[in-house]
C-alpha cells in the first residue's frame, strides 16, 4: 500500500499522462539537452518508478562513477518520498535498490553486443531486465547497427530503453546521423528557461508531437506539470 502510494504520486505519472503511457517494450527514448540540465535526474525517476513496481532496472553509466549514480538514486528517492509520511522509508529504499544493477562502462571498450550479452547473462541468472538505462551515451560513436542490436533484444526480452545525450539544441541530428535518429522512438528535449527547466516531447512512438510540455522543478529536479 505504501509503495502503491509512491507509484501513484510518482513524477513519472506526469510523463505518462503527457505521452500516452510512455515507452512500449522494444522502444528506445532519449533525453537530449546541454550538459547539466537534469537528464540523469529524469532517468533516475524513471528507474525508481520501475523499481517501485518491482521491475528490474539495469543502469549503465558511461560518464559517472557507480557511487555518483547511487547518490542520485538516494537523493531522488528522498525527494519523491517527502511529505508522504512513510513509516519505513529506509526499508523501502533498501528493497528498491536490491532490484537495481549499476554497470559502469567505457564506451570506447564496450559494444552494444556486449551490453546485450550482459543482459542475457543476467536473465540466465534469473534477473530479467524491465528497463535498460544508458546514461552519457556519446551518439557520435554510435553506429546504426548498435541501436538495432539493443532494440531488437529489448523487443525480444520485453524491456524499454532510455538514454541521455548531450546536445546543444533540440535537433539530435547535430550529434548523430539521421539514420540513427530515425531509430529513436521518443525524443525529449530539456532546456533552461528562466527559473525552470522545460521538457518538450519532440517525438513519441516515432511520431512528431506538439504542445506536450513538462518541466523539472529546479530545486528537487522532479518532473512536474507545466
Structural overview:
The chain is an alpha/beta fold and 226 residues long. It has helices at residues 2-8, 12-18, 39-52, 66-81, 89-97, 112-124, 144-157, 178-183, and strands at residues 28-33, 57-61, 100-104, 131-135, 160-166, 186-193, 196-204, 207-208, 213-216, 223-225. Strands 1, 2, 3, 4, 5, 6, 7, 8, 9 and 10 form a ten-stranded mixed β-sheet that branches. Helix 3 packs across helix 4 (66-81) and helix 6 (112-124) packs parallel to helix 7. 39% of the residues are buried. The mean pLDDT is 90.
Shape: globular
Rg, rounded, reads 17 Å
What is the overall number of helices? 8
Distance between the termini: 29 Å
Low-confidence stretches: none
Helix content: 25-40%
Percentage of residues in strands = 15-25%
Listing every helix as H and every strand as E from the N terminus to the C terminus, the arrangement reads HHEHEHHEHEHEHEEEEE
Category from helices, strands and their pairing: alpha/beta
Strand count, sense and barrel status of the largest sheet are:
10 strands, mixed
- Overall average residue pLDDT: 90
How many distinct beta strands?
Answer: 10
List the helices and strands and how they pair.
Blueprint: H1 2-8, H2 12-18, E1 28-33, H3 39-52, E2 57-61, H4 66-81, H5 89-97, E3 100-104, H6 112-124, E4 131-135, H7 144-157, E5 160-166, H8 178-183, E6 186-193, E7 196-204, E8 207-208, E9 213-216, E10 223-225
Parallel strand pairs: 1-5, 1-6, 2-3, 2-4, 4-5
Antiparallel strand pairs: 6-7, 7-8, 7-9, 9-10
Helix pairs in contact: 3-4, 6-7
Amino acid at each position: 500500500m505504501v509503495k502503491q502510494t509512491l507509484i501513484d504520486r510518482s513524477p513519472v505519472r506526469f510523463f505518462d499522462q503527457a505521452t500516452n503511457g510512455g515507452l512500449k517494450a522494444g522502444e528506445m527514448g532519449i533525453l537530449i539537452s546541454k550538459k547539466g540540465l537534469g537528464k540523469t535526474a529524469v532517468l533516475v525517476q524513471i528507474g525508481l518508478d520501475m523499481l517501485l513496481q518491482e521491475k528490474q532496472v539495469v543502469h549503465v553509466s558511461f560518464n559517472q562513477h557507480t557511487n555518483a549514480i547511487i547518490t542520485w538514486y538516494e537523493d531522488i528517492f528522498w525527494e519523491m518520498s517527502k511529505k508522504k509520511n512513510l513509516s519505513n522509508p529506509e526499508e523501502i529504499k533498501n528493497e528498491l535498490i536490491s532490484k537495481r544493477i549499476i554497470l559502469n562502462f567505457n564506451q570506447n571498450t564496450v559494444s552494444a553486443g556486449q551490453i546485450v550479452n550482459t543482459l542475457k547473462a543476467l536473465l540466465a541468472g534469473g534477473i530479467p531486465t524491465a528497463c535498460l538505462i544508458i546514461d552519457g551515451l556519446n551518439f557520435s560513436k554510435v553506429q546504426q547497427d548498435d541501436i538495432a542490436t539493443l532494440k531488437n533484444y529489448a523487443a525480444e526480452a520485453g524491456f524499454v530503453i532510455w538514454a541521455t545525450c548531450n546536445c546543444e539544441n533540440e535537433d539530435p541530428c547535430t550529434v548523430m546521423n539521421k539514420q540513427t535518429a530515425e531509430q529513436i522512438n521518443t525524443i525529449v528535449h530539456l532546456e533552461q528557461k528562466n527559473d525552470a527547466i522545460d521538457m518538450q516531447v519532440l517525438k513519441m512512438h516515432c511520431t512528431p508531437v506538439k504542445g506536450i510540455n513538462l518541466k523539472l522543478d529546479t530545486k528537487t529536479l522532479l518532473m512536474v506539470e507545466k
